[in-house]
What we know:
The chain is mainly beta. The protein has helices at 47-58, 120-125, 185-190, 212-220, and strands spanning 2-6, 13-18, 23-27, 31-34, 38-43, 64-69, 74-78, 86-92, 97-99, 104-108, 111-117, 131-144, 149-154, 159-163, 167-171, 175-180, 195-200, 203-208.
Amino acid sequence: MKSEILYPGAFPMxxxxxxxxxxxxxxxxxxxxCSPTIDIESKMEGGFLGALSRxxxxxxxxxxxxxxASRGAGEALLAPTVPGEIVVLxxxxxxxxxxxxxxxxxxxxxxxxxxQMQSMSRGLLGGxxxxxLKMSGKGMxxxxxxxxxxxxxxxxxxxxxxxxxxLVAWSTTTSxxxxxxxxxxxASFTSGEGFVCRFRGPGVVYIxxxxxxxxxxxxxxxxxxxx
Length: 227
């Protein structure tokens, strides 16, 4: 299985080449085009209960699509719904990542996708709810962001502060606390930042350059309100 990011920048696609018999799973609706040798199937990842928990606990979609090279080798073109970059990671069977609910685009069938419960404080204040996605296993993992994606590598004990609305994924070797953006409650909210995540290495954190909630609020001001 090989992958290549096409048109890097705001509107990329990822091309995945599949050998005869190989298959990948992708976010529902991610397929843009594919070879006629590729069959598209709908699948509840993790069975009915797994799909149900992912849908209601993390906000992810109930079904994933499986693209299978059933009649010979072929390729599939995949793209996210929102404008933003794509990054391809190669999981080694040891490294694991936590991914915010809109960050997953596609992955090898050997990648496991589970719902992971967060602590009470992280669920209430982190902006991602009480459950997030945990990616493990071995093989290709494709993530997408809203805006550009930026990788932060943390050494052991090194700290970095991230606005929680800009999180895409982070390795499970990191730890983090959620705290006020400033020393005072009023200043935290009037600054527009609210709560932030203080990450501590070692590990990797991927962030996105745009805030989906902030963009939605900006768009809403132009929508006429009926009286």
